[in-house]
Amino acid sequence: xxxxxxxxxxxxxxxxxxxxxxxxxxxxxxxxxxxxxxxxxxxxxxxxxxxxxxxxxxxxxxxxxxxxxxxxxxxxxxxxxxxxxxxxxxxxxxxxxxxxxxxxxxxxxxxxxxxxxxxxxxxxxxxxxxxxxxxxxxxxxxxxxxxxxxxxxxxxxxxxxxxxxxxxxxxxxxxxxxxxxxxxxxxxxxxxxxxxxxxxxxxxxxxxxxxxxxxxxxxxxxx
Length: 223
Description:
Layout: E1 2-6, H1 8-16, H2 21-28, E2 31-35, H3 37-45, H4 54-65, E3 69-71, H5 79-93, E4 97-99, E5 102-103, H6 109-123, E6 127-131, H7 135-142, H8 147-155, E7 160-161, E8 174-175, H9 177-186, H10 197-207, H11 214-222
Parallel strand pairs: 1-2, 1-6, 2-3, 6-8
Antiparallel strand pairs: 4-5, 4-7
Helix pairs in contact: 3-6, 5-6, 9-10
């Protein structure tokens, strides 16, 4: 089994760009797409009560009801162990950055719940990758040493970094909305074949919140 664990970002991004069918195509390739209860709250529960986002929430809910997107508890994980692992990683992640003798919360519980599911699947030796667009979370687990400059520029103050408990983060693999769309385009999951289509698709994901640079977009276009 191969699992794509989705945070809210890549679901909302593709929904806003009218590209949710990509997840149906991925599902048909035999890849399991999973979310946590925390992510469900962000992509269905909360937006369902906001007229501007209600239609998107209904479309996402339909994918869940069709079994295209599953809950992590549907793939052999217990809710209790997901919650326990989420709280463990949340404590670690929010104890990394300190400013003025106070720890700064840098991640959301939904994002960390995806980390927790990946951690649990890794222990079961199930191949998985986490779909997440948020730059801070990815840097925290990919290159925590780069967080100092990022957070200093965001907060406009000096910070100290404690990464001693982040030694086992190389186990996590990440993919962004832009890379999901790039893969879908290359596999012809998307019908548009105009020569400018790939560029337009990548720009669309960036403008809807995916943390990808212009340079990275140019690199994808050359692949």
